[in-house]
Specification:
single chain; 422 residues; mainly alpha; Growth Hormone, Chain: A; globular
Length: 422
Amino acid sequence: MSTSPTAAAPADTAVRLGLRENWVQFTLLVVVNVCVGALVGLERTTVPLIGTDAFGLTSDLAVFSFIIAFGVTKALTNLAAGELTARFRRKQLLMAGWLIGIPVPFALAWAPSWGWIVAANILLGMNQGLTWSMTVNMKIDLVGPARRGLATGLNEAAGYVAVGASALLTGYLATTYGLRPAPELIGIVFVAAGIALSLSVRDTAAHVALELARHPRPIGAEQSTGLAETFARTSWRNRSLRGASQAGLVNNLNDGLTWGVFPLLFTDHGLGLAAVGLVKGLYPLLWGIGQIPTGHLADRIGRKPLIVTGMFVQAGGFVLALALLDRPLLAGILSAVALGLGTAMVYPALIASVSDHAHPTWRANALGTYRFWRDIGYAAGALVAGVLADALGLNATVIAAAVLTAASGLLAARWITDRPAH
């Protein structure tokens, strides 16, 4: 442990900010995040069906409890990760996240009861909160202010393409070999690769120190850098950060809801495991790939246009899912396309917007707070989906998601402002 490693790092004359200047380390971190995304992608197709088919769960809320456990744990870990960067190096936290994730594929593959699945998702939430937080923070550290949109786009693209590819692969394996254990055991490869690659990653404390040296007193530098103050500032006091936090929450509410609802909705309408895997894989694949151009676009035209438009496109995706449900494969594919493209517009722009409005001295805590609200959306989505599905049915749950997403887009339009990066 070290005291304030980020602030205390000496300014190294060999250190440079920029994507081109740090492309080797940046690329390595991209590949690390492929492993991060692939591990959580294990669950996208099979786990809701394991709950109903293998463990005989009849309540939708009980089935979605694993998503609630994942979302709450990941959100709290994101929040803690920002504060932990003041005590530990980013690389140390990255490695800790991987070590926590080691039991996950084994538990998913051979869990004797549903409680084990929920427990595995607590570990998975901690793993994702630490590893994904550190990869995005380290990329932002490396590139500096000018290319944050592209940096976050590439980071999130790598992670969510891997989520989609893993969901497709597990759907195929489940069709061929059954729901367990073959689809889950490929996670062992992802964890081993993530650990091996992360050992080669260099810490980015010197890059943060260089940015601080170049921008000693921009707007916000005089403000408290503590977690409590930054949490309040990011959650509601700063208008733009408040707008980004609520949009992030609703965005991941959508993801948590579709994670649990879509496999059940489309199997109820006749789709098999391979087709459900296609729908569940296509959404994050488009979400991932699309973030490369949208992240670059956010640097050129600003964050707000992409955030607002993306929320309305996602709302349209839910409408398509129900409007075409008599043709379930078409409904699933078109809704996945709209949800994927809408999320691709929103995701890197939101992270870049938070980075724009946060001084480097409290940026890690601001990103941790934003990611707390964003990822509590997983739990909120699963909770809302479970309660509404049990009370009113799966269709009503999808309608509610469309309404909430459109309302979030309106709030983003009202609250978020674009301004140049520091």
